Structure formats: structure tokens, C-alpha cells
Amino acid sequence: MSVINKRKQNGVALITVLIILAVFLVRVVTVAAIMSGRLMAHLLTSEDGVIRS
């Protein structure tokens, strides 16, 4: 019984860690996308003040 319970706990812990990592990665990617988007917009607008598509 105790072995099965330990396996279940390990599985739950692993899933929790994976979810936390996934959320963290999504946040990092989102922040990076926003930062690069702002940087690109700044670079495009700094030359002549008009956003080029």
C-alpha cells in the first residue's frame, strides 16, 4: 500500500512541477514577445516617426 501511495505522491509532485514550469515558460515567452515587440516598434518609429507595416 505504502509503495502505491508514494508513487501517487511522486506523480502529483511531478505534474505540479511540470505545470509550474509551463506557466513560468509561458510568462517568460510573453514578456520576451512584448519586449521585442516594443523594441521593434521603437526601432521602426525612431527613424522617421511613422510605423511601417
How are the SSEs placed, and which strands pair?
Blueprint: H1 2-48
Quick recap of the structure?
The protein is 89% helix and 0% strand. The protein is built from one helix and no strands.
Average of the residue pLDDT scores: 84
Oligomer: single chain
Sheet with the most strands?
none
The number of distinct helices, counting runs of at least 4 residues, comes to: 1
Q: What share of the residues does DSSP label as strand, in percent?
A: under 5%
Could you name the ranges where pLDDT drops below 50 across 5 or more consecutive residues? none
Portion of residues in helices? Answer: over 70%
Give the topology string: H per helix, E per strand. Answer: H
How many strand units?
Answer: 0
Report how far the terminal alpha carbons are from each other: 63 Å
Tell the overall outline: rod-shaped
Structural class: mainly alpha
Return Rg in Å. 22 Å
Task: Describe the 3D structure.
- With 53 residues, this protein is mostly helical.
- The protein contains 1 helix and no strands.
- It has one helix spanning 2-48.
- The longest helix has 47 residues, at 2-48.
- The protein is rod-shaped and about 70 Å long.
- 0% of the residues are buried.
- The mean pLDDT is 84.
Keywords:
single chain; 53 residues; mainly alpha; 89% helix; 0% strand; rod-shaped
